[in-house]
Amino acid sequence: MTEGRGDKWNLEDLASYVIIGIISRIVGAIMRTVVIFIGLICLAIVITGGIMTILFWAIAPLVIIGFLGFGLTLLIA
Fold first, then answer.
1. CA dist., res. 54 & res. 39, Å (int)
2. Which of 1, 31, 32, 28 lies closest to 16 in space, CA to CA?
3. Is the dihedral of CA 19, 21, 23, 29 positive or negative?
4. pLDDT over threshold 70, residue 54
5. Are 17 and 5 in contact (CB under 8 A)?
6. For the segment 17-50, what is each residue's pLDDT rounded down to a tens digit?
7. CB 20 within 8 A of CB 3
8. Rounded to 5 degrees, what angle do the CA atoms 31, 47, 53 make?
9. For the chain, how are helix, strand and coil distributed in percent, rounded to 5?
10. 50, 36 in Cβ contact below 8 A?
11. pTM of the predicted structure, to 2 decimals
12. What is the pLDDT of residue 13?
């Protein structure tokens, strides 16, 4: 969004350009903050999911072996 400037020096136009510029910067800063915050939340979710996947990947073989042993004890008993 841009505002064009006329040929004459008009204080009302100058004030409106300054106000529009300040409002644009405030809206931009708010949008940037929201996007960064959403990105950090997504990053935390991905890291948590990755850690849970690695833990499952490490523990799953032990659980399978344990269930196999438990099943064999049920068959023998």
1. 22
2. 1
3. negative
4. yes
5. yes
6. 899 999 999 999 999 999 999 999 999 999 999 9
7. yes
8. 145
9. 85, 0, 15
10. no
11. 0.65
12. 83
